[in-house]
Specification:
Number of domains of chain B: 1
Low-confidence stretches of chain A: 76-83
Order of helices and strands of chain B: EEEHEEHEHHHEHEHEE
Structural class of chain A: alpha+beta
Largest sheet of chain B: 6 strands, mixed
CATH superfamily of chain B: P-loop containing nucleotide triphosphate hydrolases
Distance between the termini of chain B: 34 Å
Structural class of chain B: alpha/beta
Helix content of chain A: 55-70%
Order of helices and strands of chain A: HHEHEHEEHEHEHEEEHEEEHEHHHHH
Radius of gyration of chain A: 34 Å
Number of domains of chain A: 2
Largest interface: A-B, 23 and 30 residues
Strand content of chain A: 15-25%
Radius of gyration of chain B: 18 Å
Shape of chain B: globular
Oligomer: heterodimer
Number of strands of chain A: 13
CATH architecture of chain B: 3-Layer(aba) Sandwich
Distance between the termini of chain A: 35 Å
CATH topology of chain B: Rossmann fold
Shape of chain A: elongated
CATH class of chain B: Alpha Beta
Mean pLDDT of chain A: 86
Largest sheet of chain A: 6 strands, mixed, barrel
Number of strands of chain B: 10
Chain lengths: 425, 249
């Protein structure tokens, strides 16, 4: 029986909405744009969240990254005569062993020394980031091997002049799979290319990553022995000289749950070892958590702003429904005289309001989930991703808007005095 | 309106020729008082009236005499301020809005001067409206609407809009609608007021026929020749029954 009533009410509602097609359409548009903007905003939020999370996850959620940093004191030491003095700061070679000594749950550590160098083959040359590291690097930063092999413990022990290139560098130097084993000049030294690995795939917003497309990898021992401890750099006509053992130390722990406690241990250890505080300890997991939190707030902000347009849409519905109640006062009187209960009048008008808002919601959903994100991605290159919950949410809010803004006019219709209503006009 | 005139209070049996038959409506000292600004208006100032099953009653009186208020109270659209209204043995003077709606739905049919059809609905849908609120199965409901349309001679107009019909036809649709719930009592408020006299006569003939079939009809009118169709003319003045004329069947 209730189903029959519902069907009748819906039919009746559609009929009276179709009676004023333009008016109903315009009223619906309010909800359409409201819902569309809420969904589009959430899609933008979700898209940038995904991009940010991907970047952070690339750093490894089980990792703790200690980075050398030029502290205030070491910079001051360089000071006025930067050319002649040498800034000494950062992590030491020994720090790696010290960390593994205090942390039993470390699965691997990867020391990284970075030197800006020029690499050349047969007269073609390119700027590269020379990375002196240990074989564990290739286990931690997993990239597909395109050709040859990666560095080994043997290379490290024997201080071998072996180099692994990224895809990008190899291409720039016209080195292909079949030319593996050919000599390459890096700085003043000659190396042998033993392998080519895949580039890091950079998508969307820039962020901190462990590797870069200009990397070339050599054993850390080779790096020390070939290039010495002083890093000279010419920049804008000024030369700077620094002594930094390790630019970065990546510590991977076995269990994700221990990342934060381990980071605290490392922090304390580093505080003791480096009173100048020339290092940073960063925990990608922590960053991940912060990014999620930031994004959550951002979503609320965007969503609330979009919600205002939904509010306007709702007010539009209320406005039209109130006008409709006034217009149809006599009809209400007739229905009441014939024996309609108040609740049935409420149902009738609420059904109409809901038809407006739900239809608006569905159209808005299409607009906000399909058309707007496509346009946003096309023109602003912001990544978008429509989360499933936003679809449910938008339908939910359109029902909510219909009820909230349709209820008052409906109640007003139902509370009309039948006699007065019959006399109306 | 004042309460100065006191008409003959007709209570119970001694309605002309009404004796011995079932009382369907019984008003005892019914008052209806409106507050308009500072003033109290006594639209009904203590009405006593009995109406029998199958009786055709015309309520007459100058405007302001309280006849419309009387019809509203009889139709359960309005509650008396004071007094008792028995409808087929049930005291309806104290009922809630929901209960009154239910009584209107099940026991009363309304016919209005201006027909009061809903313009955007078809003839069939207008006739079906009470059946919808009664919760009748749509299939049954359509059948009943067709029957009623046939009875008022509009079987071929079921899918037309009221605006496509003449005044007389519209009123016949309204009568069909008032009969949809098979009511005990038909209340007609100036049913011929918006019609020319020939059409009015047709409508009255229809009402006569319905009365002959046993329905109780209470009609408000100010036209004597229309009122003459009724067995009984109740004249009202200043919120009171002034005098009662005519014979029951």
């Amino acid at each position: 029986m209730n189903k029959i009533r519902l069907v009748r009410n819906v039919k009746l509602g559609i009929k009276s909405l179709l009676l004023h097609k333009l008016r109903s359409l315009l009223t619906m548009l309010g909800v359409v744009f409201g819902v569309a903007s809420v969904i589009a905003m959430l899609a933008v939020g979700e898209g940038s969240k995904q991009a940010a999370l991907e970047q952070i996850e690339k750093l490894g959620t089980n990792n703790i990254i200690v980075t050398s940093r030029k502290s205030a004191e070491s910079t001051a030491a360089g000071g006025a005569q930067a050319g002649s003095r040498v800034a000494v700061y950062g992590l030491n070679y020994e720090d790696e062993g010290r960390v593994t000594a205090v942390l039993p749950n470390v699965s691997r550590t990867v020391p990284v020394r970075k030197l800006p160098k020029r690499a050349s083959v047969n007269g073609r040359s390119v700027e590269v980031t020379l990375i002196g590291t240990k074989p564990a690097w290739f286990e931690l930063v997993r990239r597909d091997l395109i050709a040859g092999r990666v560095l080994t413990e043997h290379d490290e022990r024997t201080v071998a002049p072996m180099v692994v290139l990224t895809d990008d560098v190899a291409r720039d130097l016209l080195i292909a799979s079949h030319t593996i084993g050919q000599p390459i000049r890096i700085g003043e030294k000659v190396f042998t290319v033993v392998g080519i690995i895949q580039n890091e795939q950079r998508i969307g917003a820039a962020g901190d990553t462990l590797d870069s497309i200009s990397d070339v990898y050599i054993p850390l021992s080779t790096c020390r022995s070939y290039f010495g401890e002083i890093i000279s750099e010419e920049r804008a006509g000024e030369s700077s000289r620094e002594v930094v053992d390790l630019h970065r130390l990546i510590v991977e722990v076995v269990d994700r749950d221990q990342v934060e406690s381990s980071a605290k241990v490392i922090e304390r250890l580093m505080e003791r070892l480096h009173p100048a505080h020339d290092y940073d300890v960063s925990v990608p997991l922590e960053l991940l958590r912060q990014a999620k939190e930031t994004q959550r707030r951002w979503n609320w902000t965007l969503g609330s702003i979009a919600g205002i347009s939904l509010l306007v849409g709702g007010i539009g519905i209320m406005n039209i429904m109130l006008a409709s109640v006034t217009e149809r006062t006599r009809e209400i009187g007739i229905r009441r005289a014939i024996g309609a209960q108040r609740i049935q009048i409420i149902q009738q008008f609420l059904t109409e309001a809901l038809l407006l808002s739900i239809n608006g919601g569905v159209i808005g959903l299409l607009l906000g989930a399909v058309i707007l994100p496509a346009l946003i991605t096309l023109y602003s290159e912001l990544p978008t991703d429509v989360p499933v919950y936003s679809i449910v949410l938008s339908l939910g809010i359109s029902v909510f808007v219909g009820v909230v803004f349709g209820l008052y006019p409906a109640i007003r219709a139902a509370s009309l005095d039948p006699i007065e209503a019959l006399r109306h006009e | 309106m004042t309460t100065t005139t006191t008409g003959p209070h007709v209570t119970g049996p001694p309605l002309p020729s009404g004796g011995g038959r079932e009382v369907v409506i019984q008003l005892d000292d019914v008052h209806k008082t409106y507050v308009m600004g500072e003033q109290q208006v006594h639209a009904l100032a203590g009405v006593d009236l009995s109406i029998y099953r199958g009786q055709f009653v015309a309520i007459m009186g100058p405007s302001g005499s309280g006849k419309s208020t009387m019809l509203n109270v009889l139709g359960c659209l309005d509650r008396p301020t004071l007094g008792r209204y028995d409808l087929a043995g049930d005291d309806v003077s104290m009922l809630s809005d929901e209960q009154l709606s239910d009584i209107r739905l099940r026991r009363i049919g309304f016919i209005f001067q201006s027909f009061n059809l809903i313009a955007q609905l078809t003839v069939r849908e207008n006739i079906e409206m009470p059946l919808y609120y009664l919760g009748l199965d749509p299939h049954e409901s359509i059948g009943r609407a067709r029957e009623l349309a046939e009875m008022v001679g509009l079987a071929d107009r079921l899918e037309h809009r009221p605006s496509e019909l003449s005044g007389g036809q519209q009123q016949r649709v309204a009568i069909a609608r008032s009969l949809a719930n098979d009511p005990q009592i038909l209340l007609a408020d100036e049913p011929t007021g918006n019609l020319d006299s020939a059409t009015g006569e047709q409508i009255m003939a229809l009402l006569d026929r319905l009365n002959a079939e046993g329905r109780t009809i209470i009609m408000v009118t100010h036209e004597a020749d229309i009122a003459a169709h009724a067995h009984t003319q109740v004249h009202m003045r200043d919120g009171l029954v002034d005098r009662i004329e005519g014979v029951g069947r």
